[in-house]
Amino acid sequence: MNDLLSRLRRFKLILTSLILTVSGIALIAYQRRLDGQIDTNGVVHSVPWSELGGILFGAGLLNIWVDSFFRREHEAMNDQRMRQMFADQAPLMRDAVLRAFAANTEDLARVATPETLDQVVTNSLALRFGDRQFAEEIFRDIHDQAIEARERWHDASIDITVSPMEGKHADDYFAVTVRWEYTTIPSYAQRQFVCLSDRRQYAELTHVQSETSAWFLKPNDAFDASQREAFELLKFSVHGEERKIRRSSRKGFQSYTAEVGSDVIDAGKPVGIAYTYRTVTKRSGHLLFFDIEAPTRDLKVSFDHTSADLAHVSVIDMVPSVRRTRIEQPAKGANDKTLRAEVDGWIFPRSGIAFVWTVRFSRSEH
Questions:
Q1: Strand partners for 352
Q2: In this model, does residue 36 exceed pLDDT 70?
Q3: How far apart are alpha carbons 361 and 366 in whole angstroms?
Q4: Which of 90, 231, 257, 337 is spaced 20 to 30 A from 159 at the CA atom?
Q5: Which DSSP letter does residue 348 get?
Q6: Is residue 366 part of a domain?
C-alpha cells in the first residue's frame, strides 16, 4: 500500500512538471509567433509571454531536479521522525494495549489467533514464574487436558454400591453397581462404553478424551471381558429420557453405544446425562479406581458397602488440587455404611478416586 502511494505521488509530480514544461515551451513559441506578426493587439503584445514561458519551463525542470535531490534526505528525516515518535510513545501504547486486553477478553479475541493466545499465555507464565521451561510444560499440560477437551462436566456425582455376588463366584467376587450423573453441553452424538482386558488398549483409550468410557477387567479364569456378567451398561439417559443401548462383543472385549441425539447437539444447551453400569471385582483385589474422564467441576462420590463384608474402607485421593477433599466416614455401628467424598472446583482428566478395603473375615482368595 505504501509503495502504491509513493508511485502515485511520483506520477503526479512528473505529470505536473511535464505540464509546466510543455506550457512554458508553448508560451515561448507563442511569443515568437507574435513577434513575426505585423498587426497585433497592443494588450496581447504587451504581455511578456516569453518570460512567462521561461519561468514555467524552468519550474518544470527544476521541480524534478529538486525532488530528486532532496527526496532521499526528506525520506530519511521522515523515517527518523517516525522512529523517534514510536520510541517515545511505545511504553504508553504497550501499557494501553495490555490494559485493554486485561480488562476485556473480547478485544483480545478479535486480534489474536489461538496460536497467538497460546504464545501470550506462555510468555505471561514465564514472566510470572521466572522459568520459561516450567511455564511451557505447565501450559502444555493444561492445554492438553482443558483446552482440547470438547466437553466440560458440572455437578458430577458417582454413586457406587458394592454387594455380594450370587452363584458360584459369591466367595471370590463382589458385584459393583455404579451410577454417573453430570451436566454438560454435549459435543458427542454418541457415548460408548467398553470393557476390555488389554491394558495397553485401555491406556490408549483413557489417555485421549473422547466419547468412549473404558473399564479395565484384569484377565482371570472366572470372567471374560466380553461377558455381560463381567460388565453391562444398564441405563443411559439424557435429560431424564432413557436412550436405546446397542451392544457388541468379541473375545476379551465388549462395547455399548447410546445415542445422545443430534437435536441435543444442535441445541448447544446444558443437559443432564446419567448412566448406570454393573461390573465385578475380586474380594481379594481390595481396590476400585474411577477415572475422571473430562474436566469436571464439583464432584460428589458415595461408596455404599452396607451389604458387603468389608471391615474398613478408605479413600485414596488422586485429585491434584489445592482444595482439600472432604471425606465423611459412616458412623460406627450404623446400619448404613456409606462413605462419601466431595471435591470442590475443577478436576482434570488423568486423575481419579480410588477406594481400598479390608474384608471382615477371611475367605478363600485367589
A1: 291, 318
A2: no
A3: 15
A4: 257
A5: -
A6: no
> Which of 97-106, 342-351, 355-364 has the lowest average pLDDT?
97-106
121 and 199 inside one domain: no
**pTM reported for the whole predicted model:** 0.68
Which 8-state DSSP code applies to residue 146? Answer: I
Give Cα 288 to chain centroid, integer Å. Answer: 32
What is the pLDDT, as a whole number, of residue 364?
A: 44
Which residue is listed with cell 510513545?
89
Q: Beginning with the edge strand found earlier in the chain, give each strand of the sheet holding 153-164 in spatial order.
A: 241-242, 231-238, 271-282, 173-184, 153-164, 296-304, 338-347, 326-328
- Which residue has 471381558 as its cell numbers? 225
Which residues span the domain enclosing 66?
2-105
Inter-CA distances, 126 with 131, 134, 138, 147, 189, Å: 5, 8, 10, 19, 39
Cα 147 from chain centre: 3
CA–CA distances in Å: residue 36 to residues 23, 26, 45, 46, 217: 20, 16, 11, 14, 119
Q: What's 357's DSSP letter?
A: E
- Indicate the residue type of 41: N
The number of folded domains in the chain is: 3
C-alpha cell at 147: 483446552
Q: How far is CA 354 from the centre of its chain?
A: 29
| Residues 366, 357: Cα–Cα separation, whole Å | 16
Q: pLDDT for 280-299, tens place per residue?
A: 999 888 899 999 999 999 99
| 296-304 and 153-164 strand pairing | parallel
Give the C-alpha separation, 173 to 366, whole Å.
10
Report phi then psi at 117, rounded to 5: -60, -40
Q: Is residue 365 part of a domain?
A: no
* β-bridge mates for residue 310, sequence order: 359
